Structure formats: C-alpha cells, structure tokens
Here is the input.
Amino acid sequence: MRQMKRTVVLLLEIALLLIILRSSFAQYLLVDMQNSLSGWISHVAEMGERKTLSELQERINPTIANLNEYQRDYIMNMTSSRSKLEHFERYYCMTEDKNPFVYGNTRIYLCSEIRKLEF
Here is the structure.
C-alpha cells in the first residue's frame, strides 16, 4: 500500500512537471535562457578573435594615419571582423583585384599583415 502511494505521488509529480514545462511561460523562460547561454558561449569563443583583430588594428594604425578619413574608416571596418578580413584577403591580396579605397603600398602592407595573422 505504501509503495503504491509513492508510485502514484511520483507519477503525479512527473505529470505536473510535464504540464509546467509545456506551458508557454516555461517555454519562453527556457528559450530566453538558451539564448543568453548561447550568446555568452559565442562571446567567450570569439574573445581570441577579437583580441587578434584589435592587435592588428593597433599595429596598422600608425601606417594608415596619413590616409584620408574614408580610407581609414574603410580599413578599420574591414579589420573589425574575421569574415570581412578574409573577404579582403581573397579579393584584394590573392587575386590583386582593384580596391577603390586601398591600393599600392598600403594594400601590399595590409596583405602582408593579414597573412601574419593566426586565428
């Protein structure tokens, strides 16, 4: 008898838990927790990348200081993310396509600095 009461109580607790977890509030809470956790994990995962890009920007800053403002803005934007940097390298370093903002010795310098990076 006592064992049967425990089993019934356990089954009721499980059923109640399922009802609560299937509620819209619980779903909202769980999705919010998942988004927060995944954002935190991606932030931690990208720390090394951000540090590398920041160091690159600091290293090239003296060289690009005498360029026009729109050129500096373009270069700083281009070096702000890995995907933009890879795009620049693919089109303007590997194939030597014409870039309206970065050309000549500045392009050569940037390409050499990009090749030195290790992500």
The two ends are 65 Å apart (CA to CA). Residues 47-116 form one domain. The chain has a mean pLDDT of 92.
